[in-house]
Amino acid sequence: MAWSGEVEPRLLLSDFLRSEVGLTGTHVGCEHGVCGACTVQLDGEPVRACLMFAVQIDGHEVTTVEGLAETPPGEAISVEGLHPIQQALHEAHGLQCGFCTPGILMTAEAFLRENPAPSREEIREAVSGHLCRCTGYHNIVEGVALAAERLAGDGAGADEGDEP
Amino acid sequence: MKPPPFDYVAAADLDEALEALADASVETRPLAGGQSLVPMLNFRLAAPERLVDLNGIDELSRIEETEDGGLHLGAMVRHRQLERDPLIVRRTPLLAEAAPFIAHPQIRSRGTVGGSVAHADPAAELPAVFLTLGARVRIARRSRDGESGSRAERTLALDDFFLGPFFSALEPDELLIAIEVPPSTPGEGTAFDEVARRRGDYALAGVAARMRLNSGGVCEEAAISLVNGGSTPCLMREAARTLVGAEPAPEAIGAAAAACAETSEPAADMHASEAYRRHLIRTLTARVVSRAAARART
Amino acid sequence: MSRAGGTWVGARVPRNEDARLLTGRAQFVEDVEPPGTLHVAFVRSDLPAGRLRRLDVERARSHPGVHAVFTAGDLGPLLHPGAMLVPPPPLEGLVFHARTALPLVRHRIRHQGEALAMIVADSRYVAEDAAQLVEADIEPLDPVVDLGRALDESTPRVHEDLPSNLAAHVRQTKGDYAAARARADLVLERRFSYDRGIGGAIENRAVVAEWDARADRLEVWDTTQAPIPVRNVVAAALGLSESQVRFIAPFVGGGFGPKIMFYAEEILVPWASIRLGRPVKWVEDRYENFFATTQERGQLHRAEIAVTREGRILGVRDIFIHDSGAYDPYGLTIPINTQCTLLGPYHVPSYESEFRVAFTNKPIVTPVRGAGRQHGVFIMERLLDLAARGLGLDPVEIRRRNVIGPEEFPYNHEIMYQDFAPLRYDSGSYEESLEEAVRLVGHETFPRERERARADGRAVGVGVVNYVEGTGIGPYEGARITVEPSGTVRLATGVGTQGQGHFTAFAQIVADAVGVAPSDVRVVTGDTSDFHWGTGTFASRGAVVAGNAIHAAALSVREKILRHAAEALEVDPEDLELVNGAARVRGAPDLSVDLGALAVRANPLRGAVEPGTEPGLEATSYFGPPYGTTANGTHALVVAVDPETAMVEILRYIVVHDCGTVINPTIVEGQIHGGVAAGIGNAFYEELVFDEFGGTSNASFMDYLLPTSTDVPPIETAHLETPSTLNPLGTKGVGEGGAIPVAAAFAQAVEDALADIAPGLEVLDIPLSPGRLFDLLRTRRESRESHAESAGGPS
């Protein structure tokens, strides 16, 4: 969607998305760039929305978790209609309270575009900029690996060898 | 944790940015990647009256080969590009090796080389790496009264740029616009390593090293610099000098590492005591210099 | 004792709640913002101890966009100390001083971050601007920071009306320790410390309140683990009927204990909404979270073990100080957990345990995942390791010689547990769990692996430790299950969710009883308008207490379904089965009736409901256990230590656990993974650093280190299932188990890895940061060098 309007320069991108645009899927956990919950994509690259000002996205494209899959308002959401990464995290139990999940999804989507067949170790590295207190990360890593496999489609997915 | 109010200028080009910085009546700070500045604003540890946003200035994002075969990195080159840009990866593999240690991908896609260097953080990776590479910084400002032309520029060896913790030679009206890395020479090897509590944290200690060997395997030039080894990003000249003129045998490297640890001035903080940091510097220096020497041999 | 023999309990059912969470549509409190909402920021004390002499809020009040600034003087009848949430159990000789905080400081500041004033403004940005305009004149007082000196006579007092900083004193004993000690072949004493950390939920706390003057109703959205008790306290404080107040804890972004507490913000925000006639919202920021939300862990122990030559435990003595922070609203839950859990899965014929709770000028301590149990496990497991070393025994062997055998249940440890009942173990698999972990980690062949690694210049070590966890305590929980005319089954319970998968695990229990798929069960939790009896989600009790209430309600609904179906189909209820959302006749599946149709039949619009029956296919049930059920497990890990950098890498992590009947293995594994990750944080990364002035030096995620994906290894799990004898489902809790024994395992493994390099090195303090390990290594090296010199040097 296109948004036009005026905001105060100091309004953080995270607050802008949540309160001005109404996209509350982007969560705020620390507001100093460490926890990763607010990660969105700016022109396709993952960034911390709490470390940017809304005025800085003028003329740019921001993708939030709401943009990963078509989930029209008013329709019940089913897992089947979701993005392969969302589906894979569901199947791998890669989320518990789900608060950090939107940010992880935005990082993982960009990561798999750049590295479609990552090892488990590369996945761990890629999501290390996200704090999750619930899952212990194990199933997040498995979920991203599963998504890589699915996205590759031809079985040339994650290298399974390096973790039990 | 919301930033205090400020005025905002989105500079369309360098002159506009310099113009804003030149206005001494308003306390103005440049906004590059913002990955260090915005947290400080959110904690309300900084409250500039005005931010001048450099993100729209295309000329600051250039990556080019210089006439002498070195590398010109515009101040707004992002950390991510250090890992990805083929020219950088080929010309200065040390940058590509060190970049992944900087925070996380989401930070690196915003963080800039100019911002990192200008921030003059002794705990940051890039200042140490650029020091090791013998880099210079290009600094611009709007011409002051009586000066000709609209813009004045100066170039400074990076070693002369860092004056103290978070304190550099930049005047309030000046902007760091580029970093220039001299060309690498045949027989050169570089390496970087650090010890951090977690992936992406500021290092407890880190070491960048560069070594040039002649065809006989004798060290002709060496540079070592430390992350968190003192109150500024610092080159360890004495220690590096001990390596020159001989083959980098383990004993020589060990001695250089010991000298490095001895002459470093690491601070104690909640994450590491001074003694622990010194010990890490010694261990890392030995490991990193050995690796640089091995790379120089091949 | 029947285990629910259905197809869903025990199955790896994917979670019902995920789709909303994955798309960003799940409702968290911070997402709630009614039109016209005002935003709150609190002015908090930077000093940990002081006298508030004057508070000037006039500039803040007149700041544009500010609607109100409230100080203690504005609170009227609300200005009284907060609720005492958990009174101490009735122990003989108990000393306990209850001290709880005022909603806003009136005179005395007792910890950093105590709220001095509340600012309500158009936005949080403006509220923070105004907060900077408040001038507080505070006379600084000497803070009580060092726990070891908190109880000294010369130490200043946190509460001026008490003779000392002693908050509580408890002594519990079993057998005759002095006699055991006299008879022992080996007696070892050590001092241990276990430092403070945070809960670390990624979602901070938040409260949104909207007073509807026309409906005379207050609606509050709150990130609480206990919406029902909080509603009751708030209603009472505001002089409202409980039915006028609706608390909703929607999706909550992690609980881990601190969100069970009752906080002043939960009263102040609704109060401000009533007063201002506008919706009011407060969202805690991360910095505030380090002070305004409760923490846990600080304890200092002096412990002693007495063993025979063969390594049999004769007795243990443990004397410890527990840091309560500035107040003690949660009573003695944590230190009693420590005291009881120390005994673990072992025969301990005599036990002398004494603790003192101290007030300090630090944030309040209440349970955080593990809730004092990890301290007890750490002490006991360390004592066993030291005894094993002293006797030349393998650490696994000494454990084998002391664990309680399978034929010994129920086992009574005699002392009193936190649920006011004696510490009794209902069932367990202590031997089996230990042996399974030993097998999985390859303990028998590990010495060879250690040698191989040593040859490659790597120091690796293994650790194997046991734990028990008291779970599933009372008082009770309830559930209401309703079959709707659509055939959907609705379940309402008071136990809210902070990520535990309740929408799925609870649905599985219902699904088995009424013959639907878990995806057809709509679960509502944490909304007092849907269910208003119960306490909340804490102490690893959801699957036990709520789970069995749900089970009971589901069986009642099943009865009703069968009765109506039997009438409709004109058959005997015995001949019916419930399958795929319908009741059908066994052997004649064409003879069936849908649950939806039965729901309509049970709620007729004409005719008469028979006297003595109730309309609808609905039932409400409650479950309260006589006492807690005890889960158990064994953790084994392999570490590699770089002795030069003092960095530790975890190479393998194995968890064998027994939480009785497993409702959903995938969810249970997730709980274990997360628990282990928190335990790793505890053991190696997380520490709150207080400076000499009592200030927190690392109140940010930059300096307070939560483990991330590269710090937590893959975790291998094995399930044992020894059903609890205390509830029909046979379930035991699992939420905290993963976190409890990690530090003990970690310490043993690190010592093992360094056995040759630094023989005699003892890990007695947690967290074992690399800086601390470096100091230990250096001390060992120095003492070795000086020994070598004195032994072999020239005289």
Question: Notable features of this structure?
Answer:
heterotrimer, A: 164 residues, mainly alpha, Ubiquitin-like (UB roll), DNA polymerase, domain 1, 2 domains, three-stranded antiparallel beta sheet, 6% strand, B: alpha+beta, Uridine Diphospho-n-acetylenolpyruvylglucosamine Reductase, domain 3, Enolase-like, domain 1
Would you give an account of this structure?
The complex is a heterotrimer of chains A (164), B (298) and C (795). Chain A is mainly alpha-helical and 164 residues long. Chain A folds into 2 domains: 13-67, Beta-grasp domain (Ubiquitin-like (UB roll)); 79-152, Orthogonal Bundle (DNA polymerase, domain 1), CATH 1.10.150.120. Chain A has 5 helices and 3 strands. In chain A, a hairpin with a 2-residue loop joins β1 (39-42) and β2 (45-48). In chain A, α2 packs across α5 (138-152). Chain A starts with 12 loop residues before the first helix and ends in a 12-residue tail after the last helix. Chain B has 3 domains: 7-53, 2-Layer Sandwich (Uridine Diphospho-n-acetylenolpyruvylglucosamine Reductase, domain 2); 60-181, 2-Layer Sandwich (Uridine Diphospho-n-acetylenolpyruvylglucosamine Reductase, domain 3), CATH 3.30.465; 188-297, Enolase-like, domain 1 (2-Layer Sandwich), CATH 3.30.390.50. Chain B starts with 6 loop residues before the first strand and ends with a helix. Chain B is 32% helix and 26% strand. Chain B has helices spanning 14-22, 37-42, 79-84, 86-91, 93-98, 105-108, 113-119, 125-132, 237-241, 250-263, 274-297, and strands at 7-10, 28-31, 50-53, 63-65, 71-74, 136-142, 151-157, 162-164, 167-168, 174-181, 188-196, 203-213, 219-227, 234-235. In chain B, β11 (188-196) and β12 (203-213) form a beta hairpin. Helices cover 27% and strands 26% of the residues of chain C. Chain C contains 18 helices and 32 strands. In chain C, β12 (217-222), α5 (227-238) and β13 (245-248) form a beta-alpha-beta unit. In chain C, α5 crosses α6, α8 (333-341) runs parallel beside α9 and α16 crosses α17 (742-753). Chain C is globular, with a radius of gyration of 28 Å. The model of chain C is unreliable at 1-5 (pLDDT under 50). The chains are: A mainly alpha (164), B alpha+beta (298), C alpha+beta (795). Chains in contact: A-B, A-C, B-C. The interface between A and C is large, with 63 and 59 residues.
